[in-house]
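hey so u asked for the seq, here:
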Amino acid sequence: MLSVTPLYAGIIALFYVTLSLSVVMYRFRSGILLGDGDDPELLRRGRAHANMAEYAPLALLLMALAELQGAPGLAIHLLGLLLVAGRIVHALAIRLTDPPLVLRTLGMVATFSVILLGALGNIFHALG
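ran it, structure tokens below
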């Protein structure tokens, strides 16, 4: 039974909807209904949304599998907090017009850490 991962899946889903609405609302305001219209703001909003869709599902899947295999709740909470923090920092960094590279880098390092730790934990447990 999953008890921790659903919390973080819910938080990530709410943030994903927020990023989606940001794109949709900007499209209506700008009149760009398809593509990015070479609009840098729409491109940034779209990439923040797409990047969430590209990385968060795998991280959440690995967290859920680790939890189902009996990983300690604290470990899953730490992965979840790292994932949420990483996704927020990364999305904010992409949305800034001239972001410091360190913000985007921190966001991706956090996200990759969750994926890497989740992958290794699942592999070791499965072989264990």
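The two ends are 21 Å apart (CA to CA). Residues 5-127 form a domain with the Four Helix Bundle (Hemerythrin (Met), subunit A) fold (CATH 1.20.120.550).
lmk if thats what u needed
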